[in-house]
Each structure stands twice: as C-alpha cells, then as structure tokens.
Amino acid sequence: MKRSLSGIKPTGNLTLGNYIGALKNFKKYQDDYENFIFIADLHALTLPIDPIELRNNTKDIVAFYIAAGLDPEKTTIFLQSDVSAHSEINTILQNYLYMGELSRMTQFKDKSKKMNENAIGLGLFAYPVLMCGDILLYDADVVPVGEDQKQHVELCRDLVHRFNNRYNKELFKMPEPIIPKVGARIMSLSDPTRKMSKSDPKGDIFLKDDLNIVRKKIMSAVTDLGSDIYFDPVNKPGISNLLQIYASLKEITIKEAEEIFKDCHRYGEFKKAVADVVIEVLTPFQAKYKEVLASGKIDEILNEGARRANYIANKTLIKVKKTVGLYVHK
Ligand code: AMP
Ligand code: TRP
Fold this sequence. Notes:
The protein is about 50% helix and about 5% strand. It is mainly α. Tryptophan binds near residues 6, 8, 43, 134 and 143.
C-alpha cells in the first residue's frame, strides 16, 4: 500500500490557511493509503516558544486532526518527539545536505532576516534536515502540504537522489509533494499580499475564533477597486483570496466559483456568501474539536500512534544505519 505523510508545527493558533492548505487534505488519503500524520513538535522548538503554550498547542492539534476527519484507527497520529528515530536519522542525514542549499531555503531566509544575526538557532537553519528525516523514515509516496512547504519536499527529493546514488541502491523512496490546486496559499484578510500565518489577529481567521468574530473579519476583509468578482491575484488580490477560500471549502474550481458570482456586483453580498460557507465548515469542526479535548482520549490516541510509528520508523532507521556502515549488531 502506498503511504502518505504530513505534519503541522504546534507553534500557534492554527488558521483557516492551515486548514485549507493542509489539514483538510490529510484525510483524503486515509482510506486508500497508509496515512501517517504527526505533530512536528521538535520543529516547533526552532523558534522561541513558551513551554506551556507548546504543550497546549500540541493537544489542540490532535483534536484538530480528529475534527478534520482523521480517524485514529485508520491514520497513525503521533508526536514527532515520541519517535526517537526522527532525531537519530536527523544526525545521519545532516551530513548529506549542504549549508549552501539550506541557506537558500525561502522559509529560512524569511524567518532569519527578522532576527538578530547572532541569535539564529542552528535548528532553524537545519529545519529541512529533520523534515527530510520525517518523510524518509516512513517511505512516504506523497506529502500533502501547502505551497510554502513545497521547496522543503523538493530538497528532500534531491537528497533521495544523492543518497541512493552514493550507496548505489534504491534505499529511499522518492516522495511527491501534493499541493492543493485551490487554496495552497491563503492570504491575510487585512493585507492580501501577505500570507495568512498565525500572527495577525485582524487578518487571520483562527480555527478557534468565535464564529461571530469570523463573520466580522470576513465582512471587513480588504477588497479591491471595482465591484466585479473574478480571479486576478495581481490586480484583485483581496477578491481573489476570498474566491479561493470559497472554492476550496465548497470543493469546486475557481472557474465554478467565478460563474456563481458573475452577476453579483456587490462585494458585501459576496463576502456574506464567503462568511456563510466558512461558518458552515467551522461549526461542526469546532464542536468536534471541543468534544475530543473533553473526551480525555488524546493520550490514548498518541500512545497507539507512537507504537505504530516507532515500529515503521525503527525498521527504516536500521536499514539506513546498515547502508552507511554503522555496525548494527544483535
Ligand atoms: P505550519 O503552520 O507552518 O506548520 O504549516 C502547516 C501546514 O499548513 C503546511 O502544509 C503549510 O504549507 C500550510 N499552510 C500554512 N499557512 C498556509 C496558508 N496561508 N495557506 C495555505 N496553506 C498554509
Ligand atoms: N515544515 C512543516 C510546516 O511548517 C511541518 C512538517 C515538518 C512537515 N515535517 C514535515 C510537513 C514532513 C510534511 C512532511 O508546515
């Protein structure tokens, strides 16, 4: 059976961007693939984070996964830090990725340029190494992610070539990034030229937001000149972003969404339709999220996930150790 793998960092309040770009796509694979979905808690440490917040965010993400339709019987849901093979393979793989290519990663450049040059953690720089390990430990065929993570999966593909060539065998499988056709990059509602990214309370819709606030945020989203509704991210970034949100949540194409609103020449009316669909999706989602947190089942889910993930990951790790010449003995 083919395998799918993805994860989210527990670094803040998840947004509608996370939901559309990643979360809602995770369940697409759980019936036909072996599905591994984890919480990238070690990656969360790559930028300073309060320990209590990290722990709470971690539990939140488990509940979000279930609320988004993941079934722990079918999908292995686990914590990265519960599977020590992630850290071990990281130590091996760091020797096969180069400082030049790591320093060209957009995410590293964006995050580090906002920081004091003398206080950029090594983990932030080496972030993609650990991410490659995450993917390779499970022989993932597909990796569903939003647009911003595509470059990291591509780096992982380069590493697979490099590693397999070096040892002259097909040790690692070639993973393929799966980027949603609609909604791979949801923009901020207050500045549609910026990505929606857990940090702007006005422009971000948080998955835990009160639904009245969600409606208010959408109704006051920054829009563009004119009154026609069509997709043109350069000249009409605000309207185009709302069209993406609408189309993605309705599971239709942008063209179909444009068709629905072609005779609607009032932005207010269009925004109301967008708010309605967002609320329609978030209402059961939030109810399920609360139910999971209250159920006390989080630890049980993570224990079982860790058991299954460790089994697979440790097998891969042994193969890797043998390949590079570490002495694996009885
Ligand atoms: P992160 O919050 O950085 O751990 O991202 C988790 C997942 O959500 C990744 O697959 C990202 O690509 C995706 N993602 C984050 N922000 C957005 C956004 N604004 N639009 C679409 N996908 C996003
Ligand atoms: N880097 C991803 C993000 O920020 C999270 C992540 C870590 C991930 N390891 C992964 C995603 C492996 C897919 C596969 O969104």
